[in-house]
Amino acid sequence: MALLQILESLTSSLATPQERDRAYHQLAQLLRRWAHTMDRRDALHLLYRAALAAASAAATLDSDGYERIASVLSGQSRVDPPTLEHIEAILWSCRRQDRALGPHAALDTVLAQRQLARSLLSQCPTELRPRLLSVQSEASRLAGWLSFDLNQFDDAGYYYEDALDAAHAALPAAGDDPAGSVLFYDEAIHIGIRAGCHLELHDPQRAVDYAQQTLGNLDPSAARNKVFVTVDLGTAYLQGEEIDEAARLLGDAGEIAAGNSSARLAERLQQARARLQPWQDTTAVRELDDRLTAYGLA
């Protein structure tokens, strides 16, 4: 009965992040006690799978890997570098899933890895604790970003605050070694930001130039970024009153966005379409509306 109540708390759409965190903690404690009453190998597999909850799609450990991590969760062994490498690899995979498919594709897995990192702290040796705290912080940061992209701003704030707390705890031991740092804004994104700035300055020609440069340099897997830049490019053509090209580009952006779950993305596209309202009776804009309707974005 207790297990069912905990699982209900984890899966309820009404649960807050704080409530889900408490439920994960209770689940880990319950399963640790349960593991001692079952066949060891079966119990360890169950413990690992249940603790990760919705993460099974991204977790690709072999049998030995399952046993190693579950053994740590059950208190029978300590955290080692391969354990942390596994969580880091899954978070990297989640970042790529988000870029390609949007936040819904990655959020449950990220939350599961975040809880896994938290549950490992008590079994972590001193020399690996800063790295584990960094992993936990990155999982919380990523959860905050995904929640923000879904317009779940209260959840985003909670996870971002947790990421600053975890990062702050790790800073004293980090020193000046940049080896663990992550470069998020590459050159393509930097140029794209320039395009957005020139849009705000109503300088459409330079906005077009920078947006086209960005599209030529973006990672092909960065679907969401490609949509945002394409929307900016279409908006720049709109500012220059090149309506046909603006409408075509927004349609192209909609085609890509149709496979992405980002609420911000759909909102941004709809805002761009609204700016074409004075030309809604033109052939180009009518064709754009037909495309957005077909993509479920009208």
Protein described:
The chain is mainly alpha-helical and 298 residues long. It folds into two domains: 179 residues, no CATH class; 108 residues, Alpha Horseshoe (Serine Threonine Protein Phosphatase 5, Tetratricopeptide repeat). It contains 14 helices and no strands. α9 packs parallel to α11 and α12 runs parallel beside α14. The longest helix is centred in the middle third of the chain and has 22 residues. It is elongated and about 70 Å long.
Task: Walk me through the topology.
Elements: H1 2-11, H2 17-35, H3 40-52, H4 63-73, H5 81-101, H6 107-120, H7 129-149, H8 153-174, H9 187-200, H10 204-217, H11 223-239, H12 243-257, H13 263-274, H14 283-294
Helix pairs in contact: 1-2, 2-3, 3-4, 5-6, 5-7, 6-7, 7-8, 9-10, 9-11, 10-11, 11-12, 11-13, 12-13, 12-14
Taking all Cα atoms into account, the compactness measure Rg is: 23 Å
Enumerate the spans where pLDDT stays under 50 for 5 or more consecutive residues: 43-48, 51-61, 177-183
How many discrete domains? Answer: 2
Treating each run of at least 4 consecutive H or I residues as one helix, how many helices?
14
Indicate the structural class: mainly alpha
Give the N-to-C terminal Cα separation: 45 Å
The biggest beta sheet is recorded as: none
Please provide the count of β strands.
0
> How much β-strand is present in the residues?
under 5%
Task: State the order of secondary-structure elements, H for helix, E for strand.
Answer: HHHHHHHHHHHHHH
Mean pLDDT: 78
Helical fraction? over 70%
Overall geometry: elongated
